[in-house]
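Q: What would this chain look like folded?
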Amino acid sequence: IIAKTKSGTIASVIFGVAIATALMPPLCTVGYGLAIGNFQYAGGALYLFSINAVFIALSTFIVSKLLRFPLVRYANSKRRRRTAQIASLIALIVMVPSVILFINLLDQQLFENKTKEFVKKVIKYEGTEVVKSTQDFKTKDIEVYLIGRPVPQSTINEWLSQMDEVEMLQDANLRIYQGTDQSGELAEKLSSDVKAGILEDLYVRNEQAIKDKNTRIDFLENEIAKLRIKDIPFEELSKEVKAVYKNIEQFSFSRRVTTNFAKTDTLPVIYVSWAKTVSTKEKTEKNQALFDWLKIKLKVDTLLVQETP
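A: My prediction, written as C-alpha coordinates:
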Protein backbone atom coordinates (compact mmCIF):
# COMPACT_ATOMS: atom_id res chain seq x y z
CA ILE A 1 0.00 0.00 0.00
CA ILE A 2 1.49 3.33 -1.04
CA ALA A 3 -1.50 5.65 -0.52
CA LYS A 4 -4.99 5.81 0.89
CA THR A 5 -8.21 6.46 -1.05
CA LYS A 6 -11.82 6.58 -0.01
CA SER A 7 -13.68 3.28 -0.19
CA GLY A 8 -16.46 2.90 -2.73
CA THR A 9 -15.01 5.36 -5.25
CA ILE A 10 -14.23 4.91 -8.93
CA ALA A 11 -10.78 3.67 -7.93
CA SER A 12 -12.16 0.17 -7.35
CA VAL A 13 -13.49 0.14 -10.91
CA ILE A 14 -10.08 1.13 -12.26
CA PHE A 15 -8.45 -1.68 -10.30
CA GLY A 16 -10.89 -4.18 -11.76
CA VAL A 17 -10.30 -3.01 -15.32
CA ALA A 18 -6.53 -3.17 -14.86
CA ILE A 19 -6.71 -6.72 -13.53
CA ALA A 20 -9.17 -7.90 -16.20
CA THR A 21 -7.31 -6.44 -19.19
CA ALA A 22 -3.63 -6.52 -18.23
CA LEU A 23 -3.15 -9.28 -15.66
CA MET A 24 -5.70 -12.03 -16.22
CA PRO A 25 -5.01 -12.79 -19.94
CA PRO A 26 -1.25 -13.39 -19.39
CA LEU A 27 -1.98 -15.61 -16.38
CA CYS A 28 -4.49 -17.62 -18.41
CA THR A 29 -1.87 -18.02 -21.14
CA VAL A 30 0.63 -19.22 -18.54
CA GLY A 31 -1.80 -21.90 -17.42
CA TYR A 32 -2.53 -22.93 -21.02
CA GLY A 33 1.19 -23.11 -21.85
CA LEU A 34 1.88 -25.29 -18.83
CA ALA A 35 -1.09 -27.52 -19.65
CA ILE A 36 0.14 -28.26 -23.18
CA GLY A 37 3.77 -28.45 -22.12
CA ASN A 38 4.85 -25.39 -24.11
CA PHE A 39 7.15 -23.65 -21.66
CA GLN A 40 8.07 -20.97 -24.20
CA TYR A 41 4.46 -19.76 -24.26
CA ALA A 42 4.23 -19.98 -20.49
CA GLY A 43 7.50 -18.10 -19.94
CA GLY A 44 6.62 -15.34 -22.38
CA ALA A 45 3.18 -14.87 -20.84
CA LEU A 46 4.64 -14.85 -17.33
CA TYR A 47 7.12 -12.17 -18.36
CA LEU A 48 4.27 -10.12 -19.87
CA PHE A 49 2.39 -10.46 -16.59
CA SER A 50 5.46 -9.22 -14.71
CA ILE A 51 5.85 -6.20 -16.99
CA ASN A 52 2.18 -5.28 -16.66
CA ALA A 53 2.22 -5.66 -12.89
CA VAL A 54 5.35 -3.54 -12.47
CA PHE A 55 4.14 -0.76 -14.73
CA ILE A 56 0.69 -0.74 -13.12
CA ALA A 57 2.37 -0.26 -9.76
CA LEU A 58 4.69 2.39 -11.19
CA SER A 59 1.86 4.33 -12.83
CA THR A 60 -0.16 4.10 -9.61
CA PHE A 61 2.73 5.57 -7.64
CA ILE A 62 3.20 8.41 -10.15
CA VAL A 63 -0.52 9.26 -10.20
CA SER A 64 -0.63 9.18 -6.40
CA LYS A 65 2.26 11.64 -6.25
CA LEU A 66 0.68 13.93 -8.84
CA LEU A 67 -2.70 13.93 -7.08
CA ARG A 68 -0.99 14.37 -3.70
CA PHE A 69 -2.62 11.42 -2.03
CA PRO A 70 -1.55 11.00 1.61
CA LEU A 71 1.27 8.47 1.48
CA VAL A 72 1.58 5.72 4.04
CA ARG A 73 4.20 6.54 6.62
CA TYR A 74 6.42 3.81 7.99
CA ALA A 75 7.38 3.90 11.64
CA ASN A 76 10.73 2.44 10.61
CA SER A 77 12.36 4.63 7.94
CA LYS A 78 15.04 2.01 7.34
CA ARG A 79 12.38 -0.51 6.39
CA ARG A 80 10.81 2.03 4.01
CA ARG A 81 14.13 2.55 2.23
CA ARG A 82 14.65 -1.18 2.03
CA THR A 83 11.21 -1.66 0.47
CA ALA A 84 11.86 1.12 -2.05
CA GLN A 85 15.20 -0.42 -3.02
CA ILE A 86 13.64 -3.85 -3.56
CA ALA A 87 10.82 -2.36 -5.66
CA SER A 88 13.30 -0.38 -7.76
CA LEU A 89 15.47 -3.46 -8.29
CA ILE A 90 12.49 -5.55 -9.41
CA ALA A 91 11.38 -2.80 -11.79
CA LEU A 92 14.90 -2.58 -13.23
CA ILE A 93 15.16 -6.35 -13.67
CA VAL A 94 11.84 -6.41 -15.50
CA MET A 95 12.50 -3.34 -17.66
CA VAL A 96 15.99 -4.20 -18.92
CA PRO A 97 14.98 -7.35 -20.86
CA SER A 98 11.95 -5.54 -22.28
CA VAL A 99 14.20 -2.78 -23.62
CA ILE A 100 16.50 -5.37 -25.18
CA LEU A 101 13.54 -7.17 -26.74
CA PHE A 102 12.20 -3.89 -28.07
CA ILE A 103 15.53 -3.05 -29.72
CA ASN A 104 15.76 -6.52 -31.28
CA LEU A 105 12.19 -6.37 -32.58
CA LEU A 106 12.83 -2.91 -33.98
CA ASP A 107 15.97 -4.10 -35.78
CA GLN A 108 14.09 -7.14 -37.12
CA GLN A 109 11.23 -5.00 -38.40
CA LEU A 110 13.64 -2.56 -40.05
CA PHE A 111 15.50 -5.47 -41.66
CA GLU A 112 12.28 -6.95 -43.04
CA ASN A 113 11.06 -3.58 -44.34
CA LYS A 114 14.39 -2.83 -46.00
CA THR A 115 14.43 -6.31 -47.55
CA LYS A 116 10.93 -6.00 -48.99
CA GLU A 117 11.70 -2.54 -50.34
CA PHE A 118 14.96 -3.77 -51.88
CA VAL A 119 13.29 -6.75 -53.58
CA LYS A 120 10.46 -4.57 -54.88
CA LYS A 121 12.63 -1.79 -56.29
CA VAL A 122 15.89 -3.52 -57.26
CA ILE A 123 15.15 -7.15 -58.14
CA LYS A 124 13.83 -6.47 -61.63
CA TYR A 125 14.70 -8.04 -64.98
CA GLU A 126 12.81 -8.01 -68.25
CA GLY A 127 10.90 -11.24 -68.78
CA THR A 128 11.42 -12.36 -65.18
CA GLU A 129 8.99 -12.22 -62.28
CA VAL A 130 9.57 -12.57 -58.55
CA VAL A 131 7.51 -15.50 -57.27
CA LYS A 132 8.47 -15.36 -53.62
CA SER A 133 10.97 -13.69 -51.32
CA THR A 134 11.89 -14.62 -47.76
CA GLN A 135 14.21 -13.12 -45.18
CA ASP A 136 15.74 -14.46 -41.98
CA PHE A 137 16.86 -11.84 -39.48
CA LYS A 138 18.96 -14.26 -37.44
CA THR A 139 21.01 -15.65 -40.33
CA LYS A 140 20.73 -12.46 -42.45
CA ASP A 141 19.70 -14.59 -45.43
CA ILE A 142 17.53 -13.12 -48.20
CA GLU A 143 16.12 -15.68 -50.64
CA VAL A 144 14.43 -14.61 -53.87
CA TYR A 145 12.67 -17.04 -56.22
CA LEU A 146 12.34 -16.06 -59.88
CA ILE A 147 10.55 -17.51 -62.89
CA GLY A 148 10.89 -16.54 -66.53
CA ARG A 149 14.01 -15.60 -68.44
CA PRO A 150 17.30 -16.50 -66.74
CA VAL A 151 19.03 -13.56 -65.08
CA PRO A 152 22.73 -13.28 -66.01
CA GLN A 153 25.33 -13.32 -63.27
CA SER A 154 26.40 -9.76 -64.12
CA THR A 155 22.93 -8.49 -63.23
CA ILE A 156 22.95 -10.46 -59.98
CA ASN A 157 26.33 -8.91 -59.14
CA GLU A 158 24.81 -5.46 -59.67
CA TRP A 159 22.03 -6.37 -57.25
CA LEU A 160 24.61 -7.45 -54.69
CA SER A 161 26.53 -4.21 -55.01
CA GLN A 162 23.33 -2.19 -54.60
CA MET A 163 22.38 -4.24 -51.55
CA ASP A 164 25.69 -3.35 -49.89
CA GLU A 165 24.68 0.31 -50.10
CA VAL A 166 21.38 -0.24 -48.27
CA GLU A 167 21.41 0.35 -44.54
CA MET A 168 20.68 -2.78 -42.47
CA LEU A 169 21.51 -5.02 -45.47
CA GLN A 170 25.30 -4.69 -45.61
CA ASP A 171 25.82 -8.03 -43.87
CA ALA A 172 22.94 -9.83 -45.58
CA ASN A 173 23.36 -12.80 -47.91
CA LEU A 174 21.35 -12.60 -51.14
CA ARG A 175 20.44 -15.93 -52.72
CA ILE A 176 18.73 -16.05 -56.10
CA TYR A 177 16.80 -19.15 -57.20
CA GLN A 178 15.73 -19.22 -60.84
CA GLY A 179 13.26 -21.37 -62.71
CA THR A 180 16.00 -22.57 -65.03
CA ASP A 181 17.91 -24.30 -62.20
CA GLN A 182 18.58 -27.87 -63.31
CA SER A 183 19.41 -29.08 -59.82
CA GLY A 184 15.80 -29.09 -58.71
CA GLU A 185 16.68 -26.78 -55.83
CA LEU A 186 14.00 -24.30 -56.83
CA ALA A 187 11.31 -26.96 -56.83
CA GLU A 188 12.40 -28.12 -53.40
CA LYS A 189 12.55 -24.60 -51.98
CA LEU A 190 9.17 -23.50 -53.25
CA SER A 191 6.57 -24.50 -50.73
CA SER A 192 3.23 -25.98 -51.64
CA ASP A 193 1.58 -22.72 -50.56
CA VAL A 194 3.60 -20.76 -53.13
CA LYS A 195 2.80 -23.25 -55.87
CA ALA A 196 -0.86 -23.10 -54.93
CA GLY A 197 -0.65 -19.30 -54.99
CA ILE A 198 0.78 -19.37 -58.52
CA LEU A 199 -1.96 -21.70 -59.72
CA GLU A 200 -4.59 -19.57 -58.02
CA ASP A 201 -3.22 -16.44 -59.67
CA LEU A 202 -3.29 -18.12 -63.08
CA TYR A 203 -6.82 -19.36 -62.45
CA VAL A 204 -8.03 -15.89 -61.46
CA ARG A 205 -6.43 -14.34 -64.52
CA ASN A 206 -7.98 -16.96 -66.81
CA GLU A 207 -11.37 -16.48 -65.17
CA GLN A 208 -11.15 -12.73 -65.74
CA ALA A 209 -10.10 -13.24 -69.35
CA ILE A 210 -13.04 -15.61 -69.91
CA LYS A 211 -15.45 -13.11 -68.34
CA ASP A 212 -14.11 -10.34 -70.57
CA LYS A 213 -14.50 -12.53 -73.64
CA ASN A 214 -18.04 -13.54 -72.65
CA THR A 215 -18.95 -9.89 -72.16
CA ARG A 216 -17.52 -9.08 -75.57
CA ILE A 217 -19.40 -11.98 -77.18
CA ASP A 218 -22.69 -10.86 -75.59
CA PHE A 219 -22.10 -7.33 -76.85
CA LEU A 220 -21.37 -8.51 -80.39
CA GLU A 221 -24.38 -10.82 -80.40
CA ASN A 222 -26.55 -7.93 -79.30
CA GLU A 223 -25.16 -5.74 -82.06
CA ILE A 224 -25.77 -8.48 -84.63
CA ALA A 225 -29.35 -8.81 -83.41
CA LYS A 226 -29.82 -5.07 -83.78
CA LEU A 227 -28.54 -5.18 -87.35
CA ARG A 228 -30.87 -8.05 -88.19
CA ILE A 229 -33.81 -6.16 -86.75
CA LYS A 230 -32.94 -3.05 -88.73
CA ASP A 231 -32.82 -5.07 -91.95
CA ILE A 232 -36.32 -6.56 -91.55
CA PRO A 233 -38.29 -6.03 -94.80
CA PHE A 234 -41.52 -5.12 -93.05
CA GLU A 235 -43.63 -4.56 -96.16
CA GLU A 236 -42.78 -7.92 -97.72
CA LEU A 237 -43.10 -9.65 -94.37
CA SER A 238 -46.56 -8.23 -93.75
CA LYS A 239 -47.72 -9.46 -97.16
CA GLU A 240 -46.45 -12.97 -96.41
CA VAL A 241 -48.16 -12.94 -93.01
CA LYS A 242 -51.45 -11.87 -94.57
CA ALA A 243 -51.15 -14.57 -97.22
CA VAL A 244 -50.58 -17.28 -94.62
CA TYR A 245 -52.99 -16.03 -91.94
CA LYS A 246 -56.23 -14.87 -93.60
CA ASN A 247 -57.92 -13.95 -90.31
CA ILE A 248 -55.29 -11.42 -89.25
CA GLU A 249 -56.54 -7.83 -89.30
CA GLN A 250 -53.54 -5.87 -88.11
CA PHE A 251 -49.80 -6.56 -88.09
CA SER A 252 -47.30 -4.18 -86.44
CA PHE A 253 -43.62 -4.21 -85.63
CA SER A 254 -41.50 -2.27 -83.12
CA ARG A 255 -38.23 -2.46 -81.21
CA ARG A 256 -38.29 -2.55 -77.41
CA VAL A 257 -35.14 -1.64 -75.48
CA THR A 258 -35.01 -3.46 -72.13
CA THR A 259 -32.44 -3.64 -69.34
CA ASN A 260 -31.97 -5.50 -66.07
CA PHE A 261 -29.37 -2.86 -65.03
CA ALA A 262 -26.63 -5.34 -65.82
CA LYS A 263 -27.30 -5.79 -69.53
CA THR A 264 -29.21 -3.80 -72.15
CA ASP A 265 -30.94 -5.62 -74.98
CA THR A 266 -33.11 -4.71 -77.97
CA LEU A 267 -36.13 -6.97 -78.40
CA PRO A 268 -38.21 -7.14 -81.61
CA VAL A 269 -41.93 -7.08 -80.81
CA ILE A 270 -44.70 -8.15 -83.21
CA TYR A 271 -48.23 -6.90 -82.53
CA VAL A 272 -51.13 -8.76 -84.15
CA SER A 273 -54.87 -8.34 -84.11
CA TRP A 274 -57.17 -11.19 -85.13
CA ALA A 275 -60.69 -11.14 -86.51
CA LYS A 276 -63.53 -11.39 -84.00
CA THR A 277 -64.57 -14.71 -85.51
CA VAL A 278 -61.35 -16.33 -84.25
CA SER A 279 -61.81 -18.05 -80.89
CA THR A 280 -59.48 -17.58 -77.95
CA LYS A 281 -58.04 -21.07 -78.34
CA GLU A 282 -57.36 -20.48 -82.03
CA LYS A 283 -55.69 -17.14 -81.24
CA THR A 284 -53.30 -18.84 -78.83
CA GLU A 285 -52.42 -21.51 -81.39
CA LYS A 286 -52.00 -18.97 -84.19
CA ASN A 287 -49.82 -16.71 -82.02
CA GLN A 288 -47.51 -19.62 -81.22
CA ALA A 289 -47.35 -20.70 -84.85
CA LEU A 290 -46.65 -17.12 -85.94
CA PHE A 291 -43.94 -16.85 -83.29
CA ASP A 292 -42.19 -20.02 -84.48
CA TRP A 293 -42.44 -18.99 -88.14
CA LEU A 294 -41.12 -15.45 -87.53
CA LYS A 295 -38.10 -16.73 -85.57
CA ILE A 296 -37.10 -18.88 -88.53
CA LYS A 297 -37.97 -16.22 -91.07
CA LEU A 298 -36.14 -13.38 -89.34
CA LYS A 299 -33.30 -15.58 -88.02
CA VAL A 300 -33.48 -14.14 -84.51
CA ASP A 301 -33.22 -15.83 -81.13
CA THR A 302 -35.33 -13.35 -79.18
CA LEU A 303 -38.77 -12.33 -80.32
CA LEU A 304 -42.06 -11.35 -78.73
CA VAL A 305 -45.52 -11.72 -80.25
CA GLN A 306 -48.28 -9.77 -78.52
CA GLU A 307 -51.94 -9.63 -79.32
CA THR A 308 -53.64 -6.24 -79.47
CA PRO A 309 -57.35 -5.84 -78.74
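The mean pLDDT is 79.
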